[in-house]
Design goal:
- The chain is an alpha/beta fold.
- It folds into 7 domains: about 1-105, Arc Repressor Mutant, subunit A, CATH 1.10.10.10; about 110-270, Rossmann fold (3-Layer(aba) Sandwich), CATH 3.40.50.300; about 285-370; about 380-450, Arc Repressor Mutant, subunit A; about 460-595, Serine Threonine Protein Phosphatase 5, Tetratricopeptide repeat; about 640-755, Serine Threonine Protein Phosphatase 5, Tetratricopeptide repeat (Alpha Horseshoe), CATH 1.25.40.10; about 755-945, Alpha Horseshoe (Serine Threonine Protein Phosphatase 5, Tetratricopeptide repeat).
Length: about 950
């Protein structure tokens, strides 16, 4: 059968694209024929000129004069206007309409033109990747389900899957499997005739459906109806009647939206699984994922012998992620590798989606480019649906229904329409959904968003949409900010997926056409999110920009205070203790106190205290901690108490008041509080984890080695400090516990783990800290030359960045390394400089070790001052309750006294200190002391061993 449309003396054969006038073919060009078919499909209806141009010249930008020319040629061929005949009319600047009456005719086709047995199928698809299970599932479902619709966006692979299922079902239906491609017809009225023609039936009736159903009642067969979305109403009607009125005909359809008829089973075709984000994969691991397999398979078709290398695997994984597992997109991009190579292809894709990259020449028109695939769906939408969809293109990530309403709704579009049409667009596979802890979220595929953004720009409404988009995120983050003191343990976990949208909102706000004041307000409440997600440098850049754009009316306000909090903390972590840090934190604290905002005052007291410690101003940091103590007493706030205890404890540790420090740390850790991660970020640092870290160090110095190691393990592995950049310094400060204990492997693992995080976020102060710790570890492991080199570089960076809290510790390590190299004079010079620093700053924690090393150095010169220095070390350690330092001093004294003929004095001294230990006997210092005792006194050695 073939369908013809009749008007006046003309007969238009749609399938053959032939126009006849009284049996004589009328010559007509391809573009003019396209215009005629488009207009005659909607007789009597005005077709917009832009829609006509998009249909006739898909994916090509042409002038409207081209359309006028084709209409003129068409009118001439039809003799439009002669002898009163009227076929095409136009409305200036709007469009054209076909105004002549039309009718349809179904002609019989000679028997020899009928498909062989009426069962013609497309060629079997090549080896399918990632669809084997789906094909098996569909084959089983067809045994019990009469109507199945495969639904998914363009290019996802619906047709390929349907064709594979059709071939697999030939034995089950004794060859009675029919594949009908509706993508090649353009009018809803042609659906029935296309099905009749595909079956090879001769149905003389003007209404062939009753005859068709009568014939199908005697058949057992599978009908595969492909690409139904543009003729969905007609397909739905006939499919429902076939299921209801024929007992043994099963139907498998493919469409970008469901048929929505009785008995339909909807099966969504998902994207091909691809490599996860944030995981470095080898070539073999990338090929474990169907998306990676398909990409490599298509590359091999163009480049024989291609093998994916490990060096290219990360880029292929990124390409597959960017293309979101859409089979057509993967195939098209893989086809560019021969021209560009993998790396360049990935680079091009990361800057813009090349929607016009061509696919297979033999593919149907709508599958030859990704743009064509998306445009096919877009052109099927109503005007309102198109407006809403293009406005949603402003979202770069997932969005809620509330977000869609806020951004799309304006004086021309109410939120009820947005709600209903969003659901429709989900049905039509133009919007994807995902389940989140807060309900359903929506998102556009990246390819779809890339297609829609130019349309949004061309619409002239992009500015208003972007402003509503930015204001939506401002309102949402303001609610989070206001709720920070009470927020639960989930923190920002549920908001991380929105970071891309917040970034794009900020980009627009600070652009030439944006609203910088809106941007400043948005940055003020976005800064904690950026810090929580470890984007410290980004937080610094945005908050600095926000402060620069702050209007005079917002000076000394909560908004400026919040910007200063983000700027001060991010600058301190990423750039070190600069004047900028001190100025921002001090001014922010003054604003908080002036505004009587106690919770926000805490946001500055903690970082101020920490910055002073990092700068080596221990007395100033103690004053800040005492200020927090006073604040806690006045407000009875458990958060303030916890902070104050932690702050005072950390200062006392540096000052060498170890027992007092431990009491404060324990008070901080036992303080009842509902404080959670989000509040910690707002307060600038996790003071509980900081108390844990200081406690681990205290326990070691107090001689409780086993407890110290247990606390260090918890701080790094379970306390979560490694996952947050602001707390990385806390974790680094815990590493020396492993070095002191002699667990060098654990120390090395911790340093490398922390270093990787610091390098990832370009946190320069922490890179200096890691260099020093690697240097100290190298000295202990027997590589003093390498250790000294690392320590000297770490000291240079620390001094230049204002991160001086680590300087004294690294000077101790440097002196130890120089001694191991025999460079006694240099070691003594370093020790003397360090002692001067301590006397100026009050950082007495390291004084016992410096005096011990001074005694060791003097002993190598034969000086009588060696014994005096070692006894001074011993006394300092005792005054600090530093049993670990006391053991080291006693061990050095025992060796010196033994070498100078006072073995018993040295042995008794060391044995007395050793006897006070109750744990930690597996640590290096206690093992060394026990060995020394055995060598100097058999009895003492026996006691030590016991």
């Amino acid at each position: 059968m073939r369908e013809a449309i009749l008007f006046g003396p003309f007969r238009l054969h749609l399938v053959e694209r032939v126009l006849e006038r009284e049996g004589v073919v009328v010559p007509l060009g391809g573009r003019a024929m396209d215009v005629l078919i488009k207009l005659i499909e909607r007789p009597g209806e005005l077709v917009d000129r832009r829609e006509l141009m998009a249909s006739v010249w898909p994916n090509v930008v042409v002038e409207e004069g081209n359309l006028r020319l084709q209409v003129t040629l068409l009118r001439k061929a039809l003799a439009d206007g002669h002898q009163g005949a009227r076929y095409i009319t136009n409305v200036p600047r709007r469009g054209y309409a076909f105004v002549a009456p039309v009718s349809h005719d179904v002609e019989s086709v000679p028997a020899e033109m009928a498909p062989e047995n009426g069962r013609r199928l497309p060629p079997p698809p090549p080896r399918l990747v990632g669809r084997e299970t789906l094909i098996q599932d569909l084959s089983l479902l067809l045994k019990t389900q009469r109507l199945i619709t495969l639904v998914g966006p363009g290019g996802i692979g619906k047709t390929t899957v349907a064709a594979a299922v059709a071939h697999s079902q030939l034995p089950s239906y004794d060859g009675a499997v029919l594949f009908v491609d509706f993508g090649r017809i353009s009018a809803k009225a042609l659906v029935t005739s296309a099905l009749v023609a595909a079956l090879g039936l001769r149905v003389p009736s003007a209404d062939p459906i009753p005859t068709l159903l009568s014939l199908l009642q005697r058949q057992r067969m599978l009908l595969v109806l492909d690409s139904c979305e543009h003729v969905i109403e007609s397909v739905a009607e006939i499919a429902e009647r076939i299921v209801q009125e024929t007992p043994a005909v099963h139907i498998l359809t493919t469409s970008r939206e469901p048929l929505r008829v009785a008995g339909e089973l909807i099966h969504r075709v998902e994207s091909l699984a691809g490599p996860p984000m944030g995981v470095a994969l080898t070539a073999a691991e990338v090929l474990d994922y169907p998306a990676g397999q398909l990409f490599v398979a298509r590359v091999r078709e163009a480049r024989q012998g291609f093998e994916l290398r490990d060096v290219d695997a990360p880029m292929v994984a990124e390409i597959c992620r960017r293309l979101e597992g859409i089979a057509l997109a993967i195939e098209i991009v893989a086809g560019r590798v021969e021209a560009y190579g993998i790396q360049k292809t990935g680079e091009l894709l990361s800057t813009q989606f090349e929607l016009l990259w061509p696919g297979r020449r033999t593919a149907i028109a709508r599958h030859q480019t990704m743009s064509a695939a998306i445009e096919w769906s877009f052109n099927l939408l109503s005007d309102t649906e198109r407006i809403i969809l293009r406005r949603l293109a402003v979202f770069s990530g997932p969005f809620s229904l509330e977000a869609a309403r806020r951004v799309v709704t304006d004086h021309l579009m109410d939120d009820r329409a947005v709600t209903e049409i969003t659901a429709n667009l989900v049905d039509k596979s133009l919007i994807a959904t995902e389940v989140s802890p807060n309900g359903i979220r929506y998102r556009l595929f990246d390819t779809t968003q890339a297609y829609l953004m130019p349309k949004l720009v061309d619409s002239g409404e992009v500015g208003s949409v972007q402003e509503r988009h930015a204001r939506y995120w401002l309102d949402l983050l303001e609610k989070i900010d206001a709720d920070a003191p009470r927020r639960g343990s989930e923190g920002f976990a549920n908001f991380a997926v929105f970071l891309g949208d917040i970034r794009s909102a900020l980009d627009w706000c600070f652009s030439a056409t944006g609203d910088p004041r809106l941007g400043a307000a948005l940055v003020a409440v976005a800064a904690p999110l950026l810090l929580e997600l470890s984007f410290v440098n980004e937080c610094y850049e945005w908050t600095k920009r926000g402060i620069a754009e702050l209007p005079d009316s917002a000076r000394d306000s909560l908004q400026e205070m919040k910007l200063l909090a983000g700027l001060g903390l991010s600058s301190m972590v990423s750039r070190g203790n600069t004047d900028e840090v001190q100025t921002a934190l001090a001014r922010g604290l003054n604003i908080a106190m002036h505004l009587r905002e106690p919770y926000h005052a805490l946001r500055f007291l903690g970082p101020l205290h920490l910055s002073m410690i990092r700068a080596g101003d221990f007395r100033g940091s103690l004053a800040a901690a005492k200020r927090c103590e006073d604040f806690a007493r006045q407000t009875a706030d458990p958060v303030a108490r916890m902070m104050a205890h932690s702050m005072v404890g950390s200062v006392h540790h540096s000052l060498g008041n170890i027992a007092a420090s431990q009491q404060y740390c324990e008070a901080s850790l036992t303080e009842p509080s509902t404080l959670h991660r989000t509040q910690m970020v707002y307060l600038g640092v996790d003071h509980r984890n900081r108390a844990l870290c200081v406690s681990a160090r205290n326990l070691w110095v107090l001689g409780l080695g086993d407890q110290a190691i247990e606390a260090a393990n918890f701080t790094i592995d379970e306390g979560g400090v490694v996952e947050h950049p602001v707390s990385l310094g806390v974790a680094f400060w815990t590493v020396p516990v492993y070095i002191w204990a002699g667990d060098y492997q654990r120390a090395e693992e911790a340093i490398e783990r922390l270093l990787a995080r610091a390098a990832k976020f370009s946190l320069q102060p922490y890179l200096a800290m890691s260099l020093g710790q690697r240097g100290g570890l190298a000295v202990r492991q027997g590589d003093p030359k390498g250790g000294v080199k690392l320590l000297e570089e770490a000291l240079r960076i620390a001094n230049s960045s204002g991160y001086t809290m680590i300087v004294t510790q690294y000077m101790v390590n440097l002196a130890e390394g120089l001694l191991a190299l025999g460079r006694i004079a240099q070691a003594l010079a370093v020790i003397d400089r360090a002692i001067v620093r301590i006397e100026a700053s009050g950082e007495l924690l390291h004084m016992p070790e410096l005096l011990r090393l001074k005694g060791e150095a003097l002993a190598q010169t034969g000086s009588d001052e060696a014994k005096k220095a070692l006894y001074a070390s011993l006394q300092y350690a005792r005054s600090q309750d530093a049993l670990a330092w006391e053991l080291r001093a006693a061990s050095s004294l025992a060796r010196l006294l033994t070498s100078r003929g006072s073995r018993k004095e040295g042995t008794d001294l060391l044995a007395g200190v050793f006897s006070r230990f109750r744990e930690g006997f597996g640590t290096v210092d206690l093992r060394t002391a026990a060995s020394l005792l055995r060598s100097t006194s058999p009895q003492a050695g026996t006691d030590a061993a016991g």
